[in-house]
Amino acid sequence: MKKRLKLILFIFFITPIIMFGLIYIGLTAYYADSFMFGVFINGVYATGKTPEEINEKLLEREKEEPLTIVDKFDESISFDLKQIDYEVTFLPGLRKIHSKQNPFLWFKGLSGGYSNYSVEPEGIFDEEELEKKLFETAFIQNAGDKSRIKVEIEKTREGYQLVDTTKNLLNKERALKAVMKTLKEGKDQINLKEEECYDEVEFTKEMKETLALWEKIERFQSGKITYQMDEEREEILDASITCDWILLDEEGEILFDENGELQLDEEKLKEFVGKLCDKYDTTKKDRPFETTRGDTVIVPAGTYGNKIDKKAEIEYLMEAFAAKKEEVHTPVYSQRAWGEGEDDIGDTYIEVDMTEQKLYYYVQGRQVLSASVVTGCTGKGNGTPARACYIYFKQRNRVLRGEDYETPVDYWMAVYGNIGIHDAKWRGKFGGTIYKYNGSHGCINTPYKEVQKLYELAEEGTPVMIFY
After folding, report:
1. CB neighbours (10 Å) of residue 199?
2. pLDDT (tens digit, 0 to 9) for every residue of the chain, 468 residues total?
3. What is the rounded distance in angstroms from the CA atom of residue 274 to the CA atom of residue 279?
4. Dihedrals phi, psi of 393, to nearest 5 degrees
5. From 250's CA, which of 19, 58, 150, 306 has a CA 20 to 30 Å away?
6. Do the beta carbons of residue 198 and residue 166 sit within 8 Å?
């Protein structure tokens, strides 16, 4: 009976204890080489996996990128890591996490909690090959070369510039250590300036004098005026232009005033304004014109167009330059055309075709008046000159006077000098070839009803294109 009781006790109490012990020992041995339950590393579920297995999974997500090295000028090069047998591994970090877990406490993970870890990669590479290849790169190869140190002022297309290589002189040894550190940390980019890989040198007396001169030049050529000529065109006045305004002597050396400051060459400033006028004053330019008859003619320059007020612009620039202004400026004009740009005639104008002896008036591109006319008598040398001009004066009941005539007219519109568009009640016919033998003294004779209408509609300033 006692033996039977002992057997029953062994089966119901001792056996479960032995079984639990075996299971406990087995799981302890299992987690001795792998991560315990509920462990996530870099987002990867690591339970039951060895550090080597998780390393392989993490490496699958890594891309082979070259090392980007950025220098003090924010210029960069790509360094091929294959040439130094570079590899990335997460094993040191993974093993560190694994070493901290106690396999005998594997049962804690069954409580339902999760452990999230983050592991950074580490780089393995041939350090001797890195030093060799790194010093072959362009901006590291010449680093520390004392013969390349200089402080100079150079003139470029953008104006005077300071070349100062004394600051941020690359320290080769420090740069090498910084690159090694970056690679060992598994990173693929390094900024040498941020890593404090540059040294500075002490200025010589000559360098200090150059820097003092540079301060004056930099101040002289500062400021920026943007000339807004029209909606599409602008002219920028900056250091690339004002650098030439420094007053120099006959040998090309800088002239200083009694206070040791740079001086403005006013003639260069005036020359700039002159070139601006030459480029944008359309009163001086012949212009192509599409005629009603269907062809394109070149109308000689006359009085019509945009004309910059040269004197006002010189005064403005003198003041703006002295104040080192930075602003957008619209030139002062002594005369404005109705349109902008090269084709500044616009779509409202008077057209006088002397070959066809026709006058047309267009308003916003639509022809509202057409008339036969009689222009200056070419047979007597009084031909009306072909010009791009405009109505600059209107008057009722004017008396036209010349050496041998005195003629009253009801409507007068002056367009070029003493030449105008007016009525001619003494004429019974207009158009044709009358202008060759019985033309005017130069004016544009127009039928009464048409000139009356034109006088009422056309404003002073209306462009007048006269051509053959």
Report:
1. 14
2. 556 655 555 555 565 655 655 555 555 556 667 787 778 888 888 787 888 887 888 888 887 788 888 887 788 888 888 888 888 888 888 888 887 776 666 555 555 557 788 888 888 888 888 888 877 776 666 565 566 788 899 999 999 999 988 876 788 888 888 888 888 888 889 898 888 888 878 888 998 999 999 999 999 999 999 999 988 899 999 999 999 999 999 888 999 999 999 999 999 999 999 999 999 999 989 999 999 999 999 999 999 999 999 999 999 999 999 999 999 999 999 999 988 887 899 999 999 999 999 999 999 999 999 999 999 999 999 999 999 999 999 999 999 988 778 899 999 999 999 999 999 999 999 999 999 999 999 999 999 999 999 999 999 999 999 999
3. 9
4. -160, 135
5. 150
6. no
Cα angle value 322/327/333 (rounded, 5°): 85
- What contacts 130, CB < 8 A, 6 or more positions away? 84, 176, 179, 180, 183
| Residue 172 three-state SS | helix
Question: What does the block give as tokens for 230?
Answer: 């029209």
Residue for token digits 């509609």?
A: 457
Question: What DSSP character marks residue 203?
Answer: P
The helix (H) or strand (E) run that includes residue 189 is: strand 189-191
Rounded-to-integer distance, Cα 299 and Cα 390, Å: 13
> Model's pTM, two decimal places?
0.64
Let me know: does 446 contact 353? Beta carbons within 8 Å. Answer: no
DSSP string, 290-354: E-TTS-EEEEPP-S-S-EE-HHHHHHHHHHHHHHT-EEEEPPPEEE--SS-SS--S-S-EEEEET
CA-to-CA distance for 219 and 106, rounded, in angstroms?
A: 74
Beta bridge partner(s), residue 412: 395, 422
Q: Of 362, 344, 341, which is closest to residue 291 (Cα–Cα)?
A: 362
Distance CA 288, CA 373 (A): 23
